[in-house]
Amino acid sequence: MVQDGMNVLEQDLQEVNASTVRMLSMVRESVGLAKAALIDGDVDAAERCVAGDAAVDAVQHQLEQRILTIIARRQPAARDLRFLGSVFQSLADIERSGDYASHVARAGAELARKPRVKKYLDMARILAVIDEMLETTIRAFVDEDADAARTALGMDDEIDELYEQIQRELLTYMMADPSTITPATKLLAVARYLERCGDHIENVNEHVLFWLTGSRP
Q1: How far apart are CA 194 and CA 167, in angstroms?
Q2: DSSP secondary structure string, 11-46?
Q3: Residues 137, 94: contact at Cβ < 8 Å?
Q4: What is the rounded average pLDDT of the residues 13-42?
Q5: What confidence tens digit (pLDDT) does each residue in 144-190 have?
C-alpha cells in the first residue's frame, strides 16, 4: 500500500511539472506574439496575445487547486513538498509574466498606428532575453537543473541595464522635443512592462532553486 501511494504521488508530481512547463510555454508564445506586435506592428499578433491570456489564467487556477488537493490527500514530505510549494508560489509570477506580455502587445498595436519616436533595437533585445529566460526556465523544470535556474536568474541583469538605458534615452527625447511626449510615455510604459516581466521570471527561478537545493539564492 505504501508503494502504491508513492507511485500515485510520483504521478501527481509529474503531472504538476508537465502542466507548469505547459504554462511557461504558453507565456513564451505570448512573449513571441508581443514581440511581433511591438517590433513588427502586427496587430493580429497583438489580438492573439491578448486573447490567449485567459488560457494562461485557467491553467494557473487549475494547478493551484490540483496542488492543494495533492498536499491534502498525499501529505508529501521533504523535497516533494518543496516542489509543490515552489510551483504554487511560482504560478502567480508566471501568470503576471503573461499579463505583461499582453500589455506590451496592446501597446504595440497602438504604437503601430503612429510614427516611431526611436528604433526598437533595445526593446527587441529585451524580448529576446525574456524568451531565452523562459526557455532556460523550462529546461530547469524538465531536467530538474539548478544550474539552468541560476543561468536564467543571471539573465535579468541585462534586462535591467537595457531598461535604464531606454529610460534615459526617452527622457532625452521628451526634453528635446515636446511633441514626442505622448508616444515616448507609451514606450516608457512598454519598457517597464518588459522589465517587470523579467523580474517575475527571475522570481520563478528563485523558487526553482529552493525546490532543488533547499535554500534561497
Answers
A1: 12
A2: HHHHHHHHHHHHHHHHHHHHHHHHHHHHHH--HHHH
A3: no
A4: 98
A5: 999 999 999 999 999 999 999 999 999 999 999 999 999 999 999 99
At 187, list the grid cell.
514606450
pTM: 0.94
pLDDT for 7 equals 85
CA dihedral 29, 32, 34, 35 (to 10 degrees): 170
**Torsion angle of C-alpha atoms 9, 13, 14, 20, degrees rounded to 10:** 160
Q: What is the reported pLDDT for 6?
A: 54
Reading the block at residue 59, the C-alpha cell is 491553467
Amino acid (one-letter) located at 20: T
Q: Is 4 exposed, middle or buried (0-12, 13-18, 19+ CB in 10 A)?
A: exposed
Q: What angle do CA 137, 133, 210 make, to 5 degrees?
A: 40
pLDDT digits (tens, 9 = 90+) for 53-70: 999 999 999 999 999 999
Task: Check if the beta carbon of residue 86 is closer than 8 Å to that of residue 207.
Answer: yes
SS (H, E, C) 121-169: HHHHHHHHHHHHHHHHHHHHHHHCCHHHHHHHHHHHHHHHHHHHHHHHH
**Whether 70 contacts 84, CB under 8 Å:** yes
